[in-house]
Amino acid sequence: MGALEDIRDAVAEAARKSGPSVVGIGQHRGRGSGVVVEDGKVLTNAHNVRGEAVTVTFEDGRTAEASVTGMDPDGDIAVVSVDTGGTPAIAWAEDAPPSPGTAVVGLSKPGTRGLRVTIGFVSGTERAFRGPRGRRISGSIEHTAPLPRGSSGGPIVDAQGRLLGINTNRAGDGFYLAIPADGALRERIDALGRGESRTAPRLGVGIASAFVARRLRRAVGLPEMDGLLVRAVEENGPAGRAGIEPGDLIVEAAGHEARGADDLYEALDAAGPGGSVSLRVVRGTEERSVSIDLAGSGPVAERA
Questions:
Q1: Spelled out in words, what is the top-level CATH class assigned to the domain 205-293?
Q2: Angstrom distance (rounded) from CA 61 to CA 5
Q3: How far apart are CA 158 and CA 178, in angstroms?
Q4: How far apart are CA 63 and CA 42, in angstroms?
Q5: What is the pLDDT of residue 302?
Q6: Where are the domains of the chain?
Q7: Does the domain made of 2-193 have the CATH classification 2.40.10.120?
Q8: Are strands 136-143 and 116-130 parallel, antiparallel or unpaired?
Q9: Interval 12-38: pLDDT, tens
Q10: Which tens digit of pLDDT belongs to each residue from 113-122?
Q11: For the chain, first and last CA: distance in Å?
């Protein structure tokens, strides 16, 4: 029993040191978790936040209304301002990033449902996943600490209770992905805490993959083509103003084939906020070129 007792004690110590810094985001069934990163500031996932305000629940059961200070939907992080009431900020690990086999403790507080603590191991690094708007987020930590729904935004920590990463995406098969707590994340948190939300250019459309596009075109008797099928268009968004409609097939962006979402995001990033991007679009059997003014575009969840 000695080894099991050692594990128990290590997990309890990590929870004692970092648990008070973990908060719930949302009420009732809960939306997610978060962590106090400095006095008056809480870090969580962008997908946990709806609107400009959110309820935060602290270790002692106290709830407070927080306001969104900065949002990075593409990186799936947000900083909210709230009266933290003396809740300690979590300590950051200063060692090298965790490698496969490193033991981690996962903590969460799903909404108002109390602190959860589990243990697991880093199973992989440099993993990638799709954020709320479909953009690829790379460099994440994959780990095996089992966590309930509502754990996104909570931390993984080392045996000393120091922050190693922020959980953000359930990878399936018992694995979770976490954004590493490195220098880049610190810089992003500082910027968001100053109210500097990250605004990436967007079209204001929902898209389906090339596979889905080929299948749907075949189903209605149209020739199969590679491209991204427009399934929804935001009213008064850049694409909508340019005449893009649901059912259009984007086959080229900025002079390059659009075979996947990343091709489209690459073209948008190259154009930059306030720029313009040229698309080649197929509607039925007819092709046309469209220049889209991206001025005024900003972050909208789940839209390209």
A1: mainly beta
A2: 30
A3: 13
A4: 13
A5: 35
A6: 2-193, 205-293
A7: yes
A8: antiparallel
A9: 999 999 999 999 999 766 689 999 999
A10: 789 999 999 9
A11: 53
